Amino acid sequence: MKKKAVVLLSGGMDSAAVVAIAQEQGFEVHAMSVRYGQRHTSELEAAARVASALGVAGHKVVAVDLRSIGGSALTDDINVPDAGTGDAIPVTYVPARNTIMLSLALGWAEVLGANDIFCGVNAVDYSGYPDCRPEFIAAFQALANLATKAGVEGAGIRVHAPLQYLSKAQIALEGQRLGVDFGLTVSCYQADMDGKACGHCDACQLRADGFAAAGMADPTQYA
Q1: 198 is in an annotated binding site
Q2: What one-character DSSP code corresponds to residue 166?
Q3: φ, ψ for residue 62 (rounded to 5)?
Q4: Is 119 annotated for ligand binding?
Q5: Is the pTM of the predicted complex or chain greater than 0.90?
Q6: 204 among the known binding-site residues?
Q7: What pLDDT digit, counting tens, does each position of 140-159 carry?
């Protein structure tokens, strides 16, 4: 019997690659997406497409209202900046988002009897968010093993971030090797209702640069 794992699936290229990586490692993948009050839902539609295409064992969408606290260009009435502008930690950072998402994944993992959680955080080609750093992942794993029945009485919880030290080009190539159709994914911070990308936000620029550096055609649909 395959070991179960919960994989956070946003609908972007990184999390799609992580689903395929977890499957290659022999896990039965249970994908979780979070409707957190993001300004567009095209990434959730993309997550459903990716989950179906990769044949995951289950796909759950959980709702959390982070828009009610605001503070981010992704959940509040704040303009999304062009790539390379703004502060060291940009306004697209969503306060506590990764902490909350990992906590939800942790809860589902306990219910499923899974000891492994996968996420697509990256500390190389990313937007500078504090909750994408290796220190954060290590700290959350420590918390998970203190705060759960699985951690206290069971085999413990492991948090995997297989893309942590990969460039966007390396992620693109890894996904290609594993047969991920990146054309199904949406990475743009302000994609339209059809999932078409703006082409000039930080996420779009990182994605486009990654495909270019990998020598791959960019499958992104731009508005």
Answers
A1: yes
A2: -
A3: -110, 140
A4: no
A5: yes
A6: yes
A7: 999 999 999 988 998 899 99
